[in-house]
Amino acid sequence: MNCREDFAKAKRIVIKIGSSLLTKGGKGLDKVAIAHWVAQMARLRKSGIDVILVSSGSVAEGVWRLGLKARPTT
Known about the structure:
This protein is an alpha+beta fold. It is 49% helix and 16% strand.
């Protein structure tokens, strides 16, 4: 099996983008990076590939916006 060949045949892909990629070191969303990923996902959609996006970044963004020093434990 070849990963590139498998990817080329895929009809659906799952993309996981974690907090460290979505945020600028925990200091707000990295909007430039997000725009870049959205453009890539749009190209995949236009080529007929279903894209599922999974992220844990909402928690990191919420911690920053609420001015918390650490992620809540409960």
